[in-house]
User: Fold this.
Amino acid sequence: MLICEALTVMMAVPSGMIEGWDKRRELGCTAAAIVDLADKGRLRIGRGPDPVIDVINADPVGEPAMDPVLTQMQALASRPMSVVLRKLRSPEQDTVRELQNRGVLGNGRARLLGLIPARYPLLEGSVDRAIRIRLRHALAGGSCSPQDAALLVILDGVGVARRVLKTEAAGQPPAALHDLIRQIGAFSPFGEALHHSVKRIGSAMPAMGAGA
Assistant:
C-alpha cells in the first residue's frame, strides 16, 4: 500500500472523514506522494531540512494517485520541498477514488451546496488495523519500515498524530509523542526533511478543536 493511501485510511473513521481535516489530508497526501515517487525511483530528494526535489525518471508509475503528481513535478523540478508542497495539486481525491474502487472507503457526497464536505466512510477495517499494528510496534520501540516512519512523521507534521494515534501512542503527552516520532523518522531517509517542511506548512493551518 502506498504511503498516501495508508495516510488516507488512517484519517478516516467508520462514519466518514473527520470534519475540519480537509487541508491537513491534502497536505499529508501531497507529502506522502512525494515520498512514494522517490521510493519508486521517479524523484530524488536532496539533503537538508528543505531539500531540492528533482525528477530522475518521468516514466509513469501506473498508480492513479501517483502519475498526475509525477506529471506536475516536471514543471516543479529543482524546487525546495516546501515550495513543491505548496504548489502541487494534492492527490487526495485520486487516492480516495482508488481506495473506493478497492472497497476500502465508501462513497460520500458533499451537502448544503458544498458547505458540508463529502465524507468517505471506512468500510474495510482490516486495512486500518494492519497499519495500526505496525505503527504501535514502532511507537513501542520496535523496528519500523522507512515507509511507516515517513507516515508517522507526516501525521505529526500535519498536526493529527495525537488524535489519529490515540490508542497506539498509549496516552503519551503531545510533546513526548512528537519527540518519539521525530526519533522514529530516522528510519526514513526523508524523515528530517519531512519533519521540517511539512511541519512548517502544517503549523500555519488553523488550530483544531480541543478534542483534536
